[in-house]
Amino acid sequence: MSTSRKRVLLIVLGIAAGLSAAELALRISGSLYREARRSKVFEASSGQRDLNILCLGDSCTFGLGAPKGSSCPDHLQRLFDAVYPGRVRVINQGVPGANSSMILRNLEKNIERYRPQVVLLLVGLNDASNLRQGNQYLFMHGPRAFLLKADAVLSCSRVYKFLKHFTHLGGHGRTWDKEGRFLLRGTLSEADAGIFRQALAYNLQEILRVCRERKILLVLQTYDQEDWPSAVAVEFARSRNIPCIDHRGLFKGEADKSRFFAKDGHPNAEGYLRAARNIQKTLFPILFPRGTRFSGAIRAGTRAGAPGG
Question: Is this prediction's pTM over 0.85?
């Protein structure tokens, strides 16, 4: 082998080794961060409970923007404990950056692990920016379908996602409004918006199918602002007769919305507390109808809003 070829080979091997090391470092640091941030409330309440509520979603479920122990599921756990101490366990399985395809793929594993009677789901905002394991290519044809499928495969790499985020290859990153809230950068064309809506609705249908097969009540949520995933969730819940907790008007009329949000655009502790109270207002009457004993309420509540079909 010539000297020039050896040099090229060494460069290629060096790049491959560097990318592999970066991939490993990003995976480890991400796992360590998520575990360090998770509240010990759930571990402390890991014993047998009458009702397990599994919270699935993205960073808005995980609790980014608020101190540890102040996510929406943390607040919801305390609200349940105030009324039914020791009877309800709220499990936070939110994953920053998660899209609906990722949640669907991990759903059965999470159900087996936590044995929930209720799944509380908030998802969709990352579907247009994180195509990891995505299925949008199923709803289009031609070169775009191939590119989206390739993106879905490449997005399994942390290095690729890192580079994509900072170079805005996806075209749907973050920007800011005058109030300091984040918005999606760029707008989806009507054709693309239709594809992402179809893909999200498809994943929601599969999630609902799994929950119904396991006799689990699926409860959807919207985000706190008007966006296409929230519109999909509301319409999907209405057409399937399942509960949907609408957070879109949660901060309407507030003169200073910034006191409910962190600088990165996620809710802060106060924002998550308001969302948890909104969930309580909707969820408690479903799970615990007036005049029903606790155990009977669970059986009735987890059947409510989950008709066959």
Answer: no
